[in-house]
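New to this. Help decode both lines:
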Amino acid sequence: MRVTKESLIRIAKETTQERVYNDPEIIAAYLTGSLLNAEPMLGGTADIDIVFVYKNLPAKTREFVKLTPDFHLDISRRTKDEFKSPRELRADPWLGYEMYAPVLLYEREKFFDFVQASLRAGFDFEQPPLMLQRCRKLLSHGRGIWMDISELDHPAGPKEIKKYMKALFHAVNAVAEISGPPIQERRLLLEFPARAEAVQRTGMVAGAYGLLGANNVDAEKIKGWVSDWKSAFGLATAHSNVDMRIHPARLNYYEKAIKAMLEGDTPVAALWPLVHTWTMCAEVLENDHYQFWESAMKELGLLGAGFEERVQGLDHFIDEIEILLEQIASENGVTE
């Protein structure tokens, strides 16, 4: 089956028509995510990110729907109230960019035009004052999570490593958003080098890799983990309390992306989606499958004595980003 960007967008439109027809609560729908890029596929896979805006938020706020083994719908649900304040929207590091240039699929109340016009008012969305607000929000979130894990009174496990990676994710994106939208999870380390270069901080790339333990492994070692990771993913999807991103429809989405990066120019970039999803799986794993994950994390320095060292390194990484943002603010005359 030949799948193109155009055919995936057509599926998005057809899905929207069907959902809108059956649900009068939907007032708007738009396409966001990787399908807005010139090359949306990674490892021959992609998801279709559709956001439905509701009058009142339904109980289920996110849904994955398998289309083929390599393609699935990623449906998010928001309420109209989330878009009430244009001022807050422009300073939101995620929703601001999500609404800045999506593809409109449906609207019932001229919702989209009003929100987007407010968002783009004055052409200042990408200018330093608002850009710095968004970056600082991301970094503040990362710092808050770091504080939560900086003085543990027990050995780190999957929950703590998941928090650590979330803090690192926000810190990396605080740099990325200086020159563009935030980077999503599969492509985080793949796209970060270009973003770091854009702000003349190429050294931060090695810093981010080091915080994930990339200095301890090579491509062959990571390849050797893929089979255990895949088994863990399959087992974890059977658990009702696993993170919802560990979904059967997303196995190829992650696996083929990981393998594509391992065969590419920057194989270490595969560490992010592999470690991130494996750690979410580990929260519900037992016995040998947990031990396989545990062994890999120890090699990366993310468990045992190495975890404390990684957390200290994250502290310095966040400090470095704070200094960068302060420098940009000073150069552009931006005050708090």
The longest strand covers residues 46-54. DSSP finds 13 helices and five strands in the chain.
